[in-house]
Design a protein that fits this description.
mainly alpha; single chain
Length: 133
């Protein structure tokens, strides 16, 4: 199970790094063509989302060592994916909304698996604390 979580975490991190890099390094004209014209969102918002996506991907990679960092990163990813799904649905792009929704399901599963790991680590560390007198 541990390796499934790690592989899933790595795939999600790579996805968010690439999605963020696509938005960060695209020109304003490319952003308008890909996002603004279809969704009606401002170019500055797309750049901001790209920065958060890239940071969330990087923090998720750091999350291999820190479960709390991974959970924080995944929480940001959930917010981004909910926003992406809602924005596509509001624009009437149901087909385009399926991609962030599918990734949202994968990220939610990862969050659930990471929270279980946090709980089990807490239980193990609490059992090592000597009882006070």
């Amino acid at each position: 199970m541990k390796w499934i979580v790690r592989i899933l975490q790595g795939l999600v991190a790579i996805d968010f790094l690439f999605a963020g890099a696509l938005k960060i390094f695209s020109s304003a004209d490319q952003i308008r063509e890909l996002f603004t014209d279809k969704l009606g969102t401002p170019v500055a918002l797309i750049y901001t989302v790209g920065i958060f996506e890239a940071l969330a991907g990087l923090v998720l990679i750091v999350g291999y060592r820190s479960r709390k960092a991974a959970v924080a990163s995944i929480t940001v990813m959930v917010a981004i994916l909910i926003g992406a799904t809602a924005t596509n649905l509001a624009a009437g792009l149901v087909g385009d909304a399926m991609v962030p929704f599918a990734i949202l399901i994968v990220v939610a599963i990862l969050l659930y698996l990471k929270r279980d790991a946090l709980k089990s680590k807490r239980i193990r560390s609490d059992s090592n604390i000597p009882a006070s007198k």
